[in-house]
Amino acid sequence: MKRNERVSMKHGAGGRAMRDLIERVFIAGAKAIPGVVGLAEMDDGAAIPMGDGFLVVTTDSHVVVPRFFPGGDIGRLAICGTVNDLAMMGATEPLALTCAAIIEEGFPFEELERIQRSMRQACDEAGCSVLTGDTKVMGKGEIDGVVLNTTGVAFTRTLVRDNGMKAGDRIIVTGPIADHGFAVLVARNDLKLEGDLRSDVAPLNELVRMILKRGGVTAMKDPTRGGVSSAIHEMASKSGVGVVLDEQAIPLRDEVRAAAEVLGIDPLHVANEGKALLGVRADAVDAVLDALRSHPLGREAAVIGTCTQSHPGRIRLHTGVGERLLAEPDGEPLPRIC
Amino acid sequence: MDKQLAQLKFRDPARARALGEALNRVTQEIGRDPISVMHVCGSHEQAIARYGLRATFPRTLNVIMGPGCPVCITDVPEVDEGVALALAGVRVATYGDMLKVPGTKRSLADARADGGRIDIVYSIAQAVDLARDTDEEIVFFATGFETTAVATAAEILRGLPKNLSILSAHKYIPPVMEIVSEMPGSRVEGFLAAGHAATITGSAVFEPFAARHKLPVVVAGFEPLDILAGLLALLEQIRDRKHDVQNLFPRCVNREGNLVAQDKLWRVFEPQGGRWRGIAHIPNGNLRLREEFANVDARKRFKIDIKSLWEDAPSQLTQHCICGDIMSGIAAPKDCPLFGKACIPDSPVGACMVSSEGTCRIWHQYGGVPDLREEQR
Amino acid sequence: MCLGVPGKILSISTEGDRADVDFFGVRREVRLDVVDEPVSVGDYVLNHVGFAIRRIPESEIGVTLELYEELIRRADENDLMTADVRGEMNAARKASDG
Predict the structure, then answer these.
(1) How buried is B47 (Cβ within 10 angstroms: 0-12 exposed, 13-18 middle, 19+ buried)?
(2) Domains, chain C, ranges and CATH?
(3) Domains of chain A (ranges plus CATH)?
(4) A188, A248, A261: best mutation site toward chain C, by most C Cβ within 10 Å?
(5) How many residue pairs from chains B and C have C-beta atoms closer than 8 A?
(6) What's the rounded mean pLDDT across residues A153-169?
(7) Any CB–CB contact under 8 A between B294 and chain C?
(8) Which of A284, A335, B291, C25 has the smallest count of CB within 10 Å of its CB?
(9) Handedness of CA C40, C44, C48, C50 (dihedral sign)
(10) Mean pLDDT of all residues belonging to chain B
């Protein structure tokens, strides 16, 4: 470790720096238990063998500025984030959610109630409830507004990991990418952009339940912080395969494309909160796509790539006019001047 | 014509293929290996990288990324000035690209982690808004080439709020082309000039250069077809031993440039010599505020103590950096004593490691330049 | 350098120093202090860091594309190898223009 090294914002941005921090600090000090998918696997959650299946546990803390944005708010985000992490492990029927709220002194009750209503609404959509929780208040200025932590527990007989892709598998994305990140960036309003950008924040467990019934899914991950690029790099390197992506096949809303051009930010590096990346066996692609497109959250699903034996861990991106290696994001995406 | 449709026309795969084929033929006609040309524009590199154009270039064509990223060539002491101000409690507003560019010991991102207040803005107009909303002193750390400096100049001429001042690290492109083409051993046979900078300066600014060095210059835009066509025109000139200034970006560039913008630019700024990170001292390469604007010059308003940031002594590392040679195509990252040791993506020394598209950064990330032309599809 | 983004002017402030510009899906106010010539609603402008820096004459887009065709034509002379590519290109152009 370098002298005087400190945590910086890139360590929370979902890319390589964050994985390095987790590996060096937290995994190094954690004890692995045989048979359990634990911290060292760095999957979306932990899986503990139980009876004829697995108990899946996941936890996630949520901060977002602004707390309310088109398409959602911090409450909806806190529920969906955890429900989706469970779903990405194949656990689509949450048994219980917990919620810890750390609140800044002076925070308006009205806003807190609004957040609570939105959590409740998201729980209804996901078919789950918050069964226990915790509340802490910190002094003015000691924390920014409110931080929500949610933990989820669910049981599954069909555990899905993020490392099961084989050469020949196809990559499917369940809908247009980068909606959430751009919606929040624009809602912050310091860029003075206006446009119809809405977060995609939504619980994916019902959608995932439908596709898992069709079979053939070899890996799943939700491309949150760090976007599709970060998620696909992780899936490819853990699976030991290369990936070839067809950029023109990746669904993107016009407004998102426009914001990306104006700000010089690659949509592949931008967060989603209601999308999944799937590795799917070639013979199962049609069935999985059918299932996805029959659900409102998967209507615009598309096959965007193929796994290869060559260049393991690397992602080649066909752009229509050329080809490049996709880079991993190395920090929060920022607007560029050049 | 609908504009978005027009933009898509400049990304049309069939036209791109036709241009690529033509490029192939002209390189074969020239017959040399390699044929080296240089672009001096970060946005050209961004577009070449983003659209994966390198994978389609003829094997013998070596397109070198010149010193065209204003952020990467912002020199270490200039970054130190911003860091020192932030650590002294002044709010520093700057463009997002600057955040991670390293100074002697710290980048602005490090200064932020140490409690400095850094505001990321998209436009200097936002820094003006920030200043209007507060009594605190705000410094706008102004980086970018002439295209960006024009915005700074316009805002200064309108009159800044009393608590806003400017730390100019603006750079001026034309002089660096001279320096690079005069580097001993330089194999650059032609330049692709930056379209958006030329929008301001006009294509005529390159004419004395082309005549003096007998090197062709082609002004090109930033869509895939713009770049391919620009390279094709450049190679035609090389084949025919011409050295004209050719404008292939007429939708944004004319010969005399944007006179309104030039007037504002030169009323506010004057060119001065200064170091560009990892390249050289560039005569007239820096844009500094004229004396009349001393009242908004952060260097005059504040006593900026950058020596305190150096702890023991100023970093000697940059003296060993060979970015200049790498950019002029006469050395590769493996020839640099710092590469992969003292100079890594997390703590870069030279410009080529700062930029996400920089030659050294790409070598470091992929273990050499991944030549997609050689790998099997 | 210099991220430049084209957009279309939707409205101009009464003082004439600012315009609301549509970037084909998102809108933003841009300043008109340094644009090269007078602009009006409906014009296309090239923008950088929140300032319009050039009015884009619409005819120039066609001019540029013709320039590229001419370049290809010159390189193609005496070369039948590319006939198929040109055919494909013409077909694509017809499709997109149609």
Answers:
(1) buried
(2) 5-56 (2.30.30.140), 59-97 (no CATH)
(3) 32-156 (3.30.1330.10), 170-325 (3.90.650.10)
(4) A261
(5) 174
(6) 96
(7) no
(8) B291
(9) positive
(10) 87
Question: CA-CA distances (angstroms) from residue A18 to A81, B110, B115?
Answer: 18, 16, 21
What percent of chain C has a predicted confidence (pLDDT) above 90? 47
Q: Neighbouring chains of A at 3+ CB pairs within 8 Å? A: B, C
CA–CA min distance A78, chain C (Å): 28
Residue in chain C nearest B70 by alpha carbon: C1
10 Å Cβ neighbour count for B42? 30
Instruction: Name the residue among B168, B112, B102, B115 with its Cα closest to residue B141.
Output: B168
Name residue, tokens 């009015």: C55
Gyration radius of chain A's alpha carbons: 19
pLDDT for position B358: 76
Residues 6 or more apart whose CB falls under 8 angstroms from that of B365 comprise: A327, B345
Q: What secondary structure letter does DSSP report for B70? A: T
What rounded mean pLDDT belongs to chain A?
Answer: 93
Convert the pLDDT of each residue in B227-263 to its tens digit. 999 999 999 999 999 999 999 998 899 999 999 999 9
Question: Residue B7: which residues within 8 A CB-CB, separation 6 or more?
Answer: B223, C6, C24
Tens digits of residue pLDDT in B312-356:
555 567 778 888 788 766 788 888 999 888 888 777 888 788 776
Q: What is the mean pLDDT of chain C?
A: 80
CA atoms within 13 A on the CB side of C52: 31
What digits encode the pLDDT tens for the residues B132-186?
999 999 999 999 999 999 999 999 999 999 999 999 999 999 998 888 888 877 8
Contact A314, A234 (CB under 8 A): no
Nearest to B199 by CA among B221, B216, B218, B177: B221
Chains A & C: contacts with CB separation below 8 Å: 46
Smallest CA–CA distance, residue C77 to chain A, in Å, is 23
Question: How high is the pLDDT of residue B377?
Answer: 37
CA distance B226 to B44: 10
Backbone angles phi, psi at B122, to 5 degrees: -95, -20
**pLDDT exceeds cutoff 80 at A102:** yes
Min distance A222 CA to chain B CA atoms (Å) = 24
Output the six-digit token pair for B347. 């703590």
Find the distance separating the first CA and the last CA of chain C, reported in whole Å: 36
pLDDT tops 70 at residue B371: no
Domains of chain B: 26-366 (3.40.50.11740)
